[in-house]
Amino acid sequence: MEEEKKKSDITNHFEAGANCQVFNGPISGCVFAMPGANITQNPVQPSAQLNDQQQDVVEKLKPMFYGQVEDAKTFLVSIQGMKPTQITDKVNQLVREKKISDMSKHRDLWKVLHDCGIYDKSESNWNMQVK
Q1: pLDDT score of 8
Q2: Which end of the chain has the smaller Cβ count within 10 Å, N or C?
Q3: Can you give 78-105 as a three-state secondary structure string?
Q4: Residue 4: its pLDDT value, please?
Q5: Contacts made by residues 65-70, CB under 8 angstroms, sequence distance 24+
Q6: Dihedral sign, CA of 23, 28, 30, 31?
Q7: How many angstroms separate the first and last alpha carbons of the chain?
C-alpha cells in the first residue's frame, strides 16, 4: 500500500512542449542518448576476487585462451547464468576475435565447461553449435 502511495505522489515538472522524457523509478543497465550520438560501451570487468572453484576453472581454461589468464577470467565471468546457446555464441565470437584457440574450441573447451557444470549439453550438441 505504501509503495502504491509513493508512485501516486510523483509529480513531474517540465515545460509544456519541451522535448524531454520523464523516468520514474530505478533505471540501470540502460543507455540514453540523443539521436546521432556516438556511444561506446565497455564490458563490465570481472571482479578481481574469484572463489577457489572459479580460480580452478580459470586455470583449466587458460590454455584455450593462449595462456591469457585475464581473457579466461573475463570469459568465465561473462558466461555465468547464460543459456547453452548463448555460451556457444560467445565462444564463436571469441574464436573469430582469435581469443580462443581454434585447436581447442571443441572437445577441450567443452570438457572443461561440461565437467564444471557450466555447459550441460552433449559434446555433439557443442560441436554443432561451435563453428
Answers
A1: 56
A2: N
A3: HCCCCCHHHHHHHHHHHHHCCCCCCCCC
A4: 54
A5: 65/99, 65/100, 65/101, 66/99, 66/101, 68/99
A6: positive
A7: 53
45 φ/ψ sector (left φ>0, alpha ψ -120 to 50, else beta) = beta
Residues recorded for the chain: 131
Residue owning grid cell 540501470? 28
**pTM value?**
0.63
Give the whole-angstrom CA distance, residue 35 versus residue 47.
33
**What cell numbers appear for 53 in the block?**
572453484
CB 24 within 8 A of CB 7: yes
- Left, alpha or beta for 29 (phi > 0: left; psi -120 to 50: alpha)? left
What would the pLDDT profile of 7-65 be if each residue is shown by its tens digit?
A: 556 666 666 766 666 666 666 656 666 677 776 665 555 455 788 899 999 999 999 99
DSSP, collapsed to helix, strand or coil, labels residue 112 as helix
